[in-house]
Amino acid sequence: MTRILSQPFISMGRGATLLAAGIGRWGMLTAETVRALRHVDVWLRLLVPQMARVGVDSVPIALFIALFTGIVLSLQASYTFTGAIPLYFVGVLVGKTMMLELGPVLTGLALSGRVGANIAAELGTMRVTEQIDALETLAYPPVAYLVVPRVLASIIMFPIVTALAIAVGIAAGWITAIQLLDMSTAEFVNGLTLFFLPFDVTYALIKATSFGFMVATIGCFFGFHTRGGAEGVGHSTTRAVVVSSMVILVLDAFWAVTLL
Question: In whole angstroms, what is the distance from residue 2 CA to residue 135 CA?
Answer without folding.
Answer: 52
